[in-house]
Amino acid sequence: MKYFQLLFLLSLLSCSQLSYLTEQGFSQFKLQWSGEDNEKILRDPKVDKETKRKITLIQDYKKFFYNYFDKKETRIYSKTSILKQEAVSYLLIASPRTKIESHKFSFPFFGEFPYLGFFNKESALAYGERLEKKGLSIYIRPVYAYSTLGYLEDRILSSFFYYEDLDLAELIFHELFHTIFFIKNDVDLNENLANYFGKELVKIYFKDDPRLEEYKKSLGHDKIVSKKIVDMIHILESEFAKLSTHLTDKKADEITEGFVHGVFLPELRAFCDERGISRRVCMSETMWNQARFAAFLTYEEEQDLISDLQMKLQLSFDDFYQWLVKEYKVFKKTDSDSFTEYLRERAYK
Prior knowledge:
The chain is mostly helical. It is 61% helix and 9% strand. A three-stranded mixed beta sheet has the order 1-2-8. A three-stranded antiparallel beta sheet has the order 6-3-7. Helix 8 crosses helix 11. The longest helix is centred in the middle third of the chain and has 33 residues, at 211-243. The N and C termini lie far apart (47 Å). Mean pLDDT is 86; it is low at 1-16.
């Protein structure tokens, strides 16, 4: 790229956007250069057995994944990076205080995103404070894994070891799915697809493992809790809608606070206690605000779309994947803006 073209592109970015992209790019660069070959780590007598076991498991999961989809193995996860912090990054989601709706962060030539990721927690908190001063509600959560979608040789990160074996497999399958199927400009659907295929591959990989039953039970609990939460979020949305244009930020905060402590948490806890679901799974001990609710809807509300579609089409797991690949190629030749809406028409028409 010529010098004047680069200057033109940079001129389209605000100071905050340029600062954000520079910091994240530098951190990504450091992460890429910090990894050591897995084989070297596995031979190192100073590395503990559990770390070596998790690295070996990830290598096995990776091999299974690419064999299953008949794809050539890449060098992704061929190196491991030991982090200086528990999480690899921190996700910041913002929402208008008068809506339950993810604020879109827009970058010229990169598109819109319903969140921002920060490799440094302090940077995420500082950026969040600036958004709060602008009147937005914010929510920040740790992220233990992410994918560069095959553009870079992603490392195994020490944050992966936070997960138990089956959850680790789901994580790896999830991230690897992004490398073989990715829909441009549709963050939510990409996450939902990776979630779906990640979970289904765990059931296939561990089909003869007695631990699978507990995993399936946990998935069942997650699903019914998620549906309950989504249903209750819609109650808050309806309260906001009643006031419509008369709703102020202050009033919205008051309504949300009263809803969280007077309705949402008590009802959610009772719901989970009646079904013997732990409060950790129930997510009843975490902070909830407009941004937290918006973040939840972003990743949970459309979960049923994928399974409903597979069921309607009556396709096997393998055939469903091939169908999605073909349909996406067809979709890209149409004037439609959303592959999600394209699939929804097929699932629910």
